[in-house]
Write a structure and sequence with these properties.
The complex is a heterodimer of chains A (107) and B (127). Chain A is built from no helices and eleven strands. Chain A has 107 residues and is an all-beta fold. The termini of chain A are far apart. Chain B is 0% helix and 52% strand. Chain B is built from no helices and eleven strands. Chain B has 127 residues and is mainly β. Classes of the chains: A mainly beta (107), B mainly beta (127). At the A-B interface, strand 5, strand 9 and strand 10 of A face strand 5, strand 9 and strand 10 of B.
């Protein structure tokens, strides 16, 4: 099973700042990595699929990059609604797995 | 746009059967090449993919759950369902249904990303 390790566990930033989240895979995934945002009491929402493709309706301040084992989600300027937990998920091999999450909190 | 809604009991006794249904609105379960999926989330295990049913009726399950799991669909009701037998406390989680999609893939069946998701339903296994 592919293990996804997300870092940092918590990111404390102010609105308007840039957020950089990391996801590292235990095996090469090619570009088969997705990112999700989850707010308390809500379901995860798809942000990015296949490393860099924004899902429908996702603002341009969210961008993804990376390939192989190292991936990054960047939020260019944090808006108040962006403070949440972010998960990565791989579809490079079965079973599909998720990372443990990075919480982006208000500093 | 499609919306998904889970329904089912919130409390199940150990060794009994957990049954959940996901109802689609805004689109048909047969509308495209989608993989209708179940995913659960617990404090101990995080997010865990459970299995899917393809619109064609084919299924694919998490190996560790395969012996206890059945996913089925009722196209006339625009629903798909999960049945998990012989539950234990380890099956306590928030259960989500979601639409899975795949582009190019290096695996068979193809790997998936998920969106949209239902709001989730908490299932507690306890006597």
């Amino acid at each position: 099973e592919i293990v996804l390790t997300q870092s940092p566990a918590t990111l404390s930033l102010s609105p308007g700042e840039r957020a950089t989240l990391s996801c590292r895979a235990s095996q090469s995934l090619g570009s088969y990595l997705a990112w999700y945002q989850q707010k308390p009491g809500q379901a995860p929402r798809l942000l990015i699929y296949d490393s860099s493709n924004r899902a429908t309706g996702i603002p341009a301040r969210f961008s993804g990059s990376g390939s192989g084992t190292d991936f990054t989600l960047t939020i260019s300027r944090l808006e108040p609604e962006d403070f949440a937990v972010y998960y990565c998920q791989q579809r490079g091999d079965w079973p599909l797995t998720f990372g443990g999450g990075t919480k982006v909190e208000i500093k | 746009q499609v919306q998904l809604q889970e329904s089912g009991p919130g409390l199940v006794k150990p060794s009994q059967t957990l049954s959940l249904t996901c109802t689609l609105s805004g689109d048909s379960i047969n509308s495209g090449d989608y993989y209708w999926s179940w995913i659960r989330q617990s404090p101990g295990k995080g997010l865990e993919w459970i299995g899917y049913i393809h619109y064609s009726g084919s299924t694919y399950y998490r190996p560790s759950l395969k012996s206890r799991l059945t996913i089925s669909q009722d196209t006339s009701k625009n629903q798909f369902s999960l049945t998990l037998n012989s539950v234990t406390a380890a099956d306590t989680a928030v259960y989500f249904c979601a639409r899975g999609q795949s582009g190019l893939s290096s695996t068979w069946p193809p790997g998936l990303w998920f969106g949209p998701w239902g709001q989730g339903t908490l299932v507690t296994v306890s006597s």
